[in-house]
């Protein structure tokens, strides 16, 4: 591995113990409970050869929070999400999750710790039904052996029933009952994004990461997706980190916002604090948003 390239799919390592953090939380203006620190990113630096995508950035995400990462194109937002999801291991810095420092581990191991994500470009199986796509979200939770699954035997049968029940709940919650048998390739864009959200939720994550969940959507689809994000947070208590370019959506949904520019962090705070931060206005917002 080159010292100037991030480690991808790095060495297997046992997952650390995951005690819940004990720091104090707070109650939001709309009555939601925000808990202690769930993920803590400390002095993260990520380089691709000569390009420094992330320069010494630190921030945390609290339990129950909706946390946005914003910034202009190329600011390093997706790279940061890839560090959070374990896809890239940064050259410098530490990722702490549920009170423990995370050693280098494969993304599926990170997923087993309670992280799930959606992607900027939809990553679903077009030829498979909505239901089957969502079921793939539970793969990291399946415990029966391949033989048991092939023979539909013992544990496999009980497991499949339990997974199906959970998936059906999510289908109801996201109001996609009527398309559950439809191949994903036939769906309009907004619904595909909703199916991607459903698949991520199927993994029952503690931290759900959404990379541009509204990209390419019309106004109505954005309203629907905003409502679902709020409902997921409220109903399941899922902590949500999202990258989004639509400032109206970001300011409406988020409890706190991190602002990146050229790999640096130039702002971090509540939507009000961020939109009144002069460096953020100069670099990104241009004018303060109402
Ligand atoms: N795999 C890679 N190899 C080399 N350079 C990369 C790689 N991924 C990202 N970069 C570079 O790192 C910088 C940050 O890119 P990144 O995609 O994280 O930004 P972003 O804020 O998510 O941008 P956008 O809003 O356009 O998606 C850019 O200069 C980009 O060209």
From TrEMBL:
Q: Which residues form the ABC transporter domain?
A: 39-287
Annotated protein name in UniProt: ABC transporter ATP-binding protein
Keyword Transport found? yes
In terms of PANTHER family, this protein maps to:
ABC TRANSPORTER ATP-BINDING PROTEIN, CONSERVED COMPONENT OF ABC TRANSPORTER FOR NATURAL AMINO ACIDS-RELATED
Q: Which GO terms describe its molecular function?
A: ATP binding; ATP hydrolysis activity
| Species in which this protein is naturally found | Paracoccus salipaludis
Q: Which domain of life is it from?
A: Bacteria
Q: InterPro entries, alphabetically?
A: AAA+_ATPase, ABC_AA/LPS_Transport, ABC_transporter-like_ATP-bd, BCA_ABC_TP_C, P-loop_NTPase
Question: PROSITE patterns in the record, alphabetically?
Answer: ABC_TRANSPORTER_2
Instruction: State any GO CC term.
Output: plasma membrane
Instruction: Return the annotated region ranges for Disordered.
Output: 1-25
């Amino acid at each position: 591995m080159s010292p100037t390239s991030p480690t991808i799919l790095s060495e297997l390592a046992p997952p650390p113990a995951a005690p819940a953090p004990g720091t104090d939380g707070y109650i939001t203006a709309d009555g939601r409970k925000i808990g202690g620190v769930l993920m803590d990113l400390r002095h993260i630096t990520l380089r691709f050869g000569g390009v420094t995508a992330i320069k010494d950035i630190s921030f945390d995400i609290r339990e129950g929070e909706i946390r946005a990462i914003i910034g202009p194109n190329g600011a390093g937002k997706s790279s940061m999400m890839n560090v959070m999801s374990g896809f890239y291991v940064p050259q410098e810095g530490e990722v702490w999750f549920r009170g423990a420092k995370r050693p280098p581990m494969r993304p599926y191991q990170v997923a087993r710790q309670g992280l799930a994500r959606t992607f900027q470009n939809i990553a679903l199986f077009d030829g498979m039904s909505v239901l089957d796509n969502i079921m793939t979200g539970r793969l990291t939770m399946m415990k029966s052996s391949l033989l048991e699954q092939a023979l539909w035997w013992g544990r496999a049968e009980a497991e499949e029933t339990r997974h199906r029940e959970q998936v059906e709940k999510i289908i109801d919650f996201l109001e996609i009952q009527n398309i559950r048998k439809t191949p994903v390739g036939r769906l309009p864009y907004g619904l595909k994004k909703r199916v991607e959200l459903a698949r991520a939720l199927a993994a029952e994550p503690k931290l759900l990461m959404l990379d541009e969940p509204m990209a390419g959507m019309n106004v109505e689809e954005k309203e629907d997706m905003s409502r679902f994000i709020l409902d997921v947070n409220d109903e399941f208590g899922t902590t949500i980190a999202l990258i989004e370019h639509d400032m109206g959506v970001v300011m409406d949904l988020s409890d706190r916002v991190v602002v990146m520019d050229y790999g640096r962090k130039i702002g971090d705070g509540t939507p009000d604090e961020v939109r009144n931060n002069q460096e953020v206005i100069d670099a990104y917002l241009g004018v303060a948003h109402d």
